[in-house]
Amino acid sequence: MYRYDIAGSIAHAAALARPGIITAAERRKIETGLRAIQKEIESGKFKWDRSLEDVHMNIEAVLTKRIGTTGAKLHTARSRNDQIALDLRLYVKAEIAEVSLRLRDLQRALLNLAEKHTDVVMPGYTHLQRAQPIALSHYLLGQMEAFERDAERLRDCLIRADVLPLGSGALAGSTLVLDRERIARELGFSRVSQNSIDAVGDRDFGCEFLFCLTMIGVHLSRLSEDLVIWSTSEFGFLEFSDAFSTGSSLMPQKKNPDIAELIRGKTGRLYGNLTSILTTMKALPSSYNRDLQEDKHALFDSVDTVRSALEVFTAMLPELRINRERMEVATSDPNLFATDLAEYLVKKGMPFREAHEIVGRLVSGCVTTGMSLNQIPLVELKKRSPLFDADIADVFDVRHSLSQRRAIGAPSPENIAVQIKRWRKSLVK
To answer: pTM of the prediction?
Structure first.
């Protein structure tokens, strides 16, 4: 928090100097002293005193020791209540920007993978069972949509964080009136808080940021789960590189997807941090309470967790080895085209419920006879409906199937190409 605390103190000193509460010379002395302290902290030479409780008192105590009574004037018209509220908002704003950048890096990695494998087909799943054919690129672009919602949430969260609380004092401001709007401009805030009681006790922005981080964790966890499952021998759709997997301490043949599992596991930690701060906030009386000190651990831990998870995942994606042959073999399962078969009948005028029932009986019969859906003789199909004809063979062609899925959001090659182009343009910004 030190850099935000020092930035806030420099802006506060400038505000004190404008109406003459401190002299211009004193303001310069304070700023010079604070910048020197920041350099010491960044170089690791600053000596922290645990007896002084926190970063605010440590910095102010050292400043006063070095520049004398001028340093003692810095806290004029300010409380630790509005000071920490300011520092925390500055921290959240900075971390929103940092996490947003890492989200963009992850999206670029997903987009590169999608663009590299546009010709790879695979089964899509519901209930973890084969459902309909899709393209691998369509799946990857779907993950990008989830992370885009995360980016949108962060931008929205920034609106609530971007409010200057400094000048609220302990809870009722000060008789020494400072130009809060100018302080806001100097510190990069777009708005000034309008109620001093609310300003010192408001941690909504912190809770909201923790929720945003938790949702990023949810999306990383779900993506990890897919990749872990697909890396098993039962699927064999992909393989993690050695850099992002480990062997077993006992079984020589094992290759464990440890990094994806660890990222999946850390989502529980994010849930815990969010629940922790919400529970702390639920019964606090208005204004500042010392309970709010507990928000730091949850916030710092979640930020560190998500930042590292995004960085590692972004590095892991380019090294995935995609087994297109296994994916395409799985996609050749005729049952994946059962819905296409029903829609074939619909296109010829049959009501969908009737078509669904006919195809359902065909699938059930295949289970009994051991025959594949695409092996049923045309003569047998015509017994079910005279609408079946020789062109039914196209139904079981995966490329043909995907080419027909042209509605907005569907996985036709044309749609995928358009979406890749859209994302490529969007991620340049």
So the answer is: 0.94
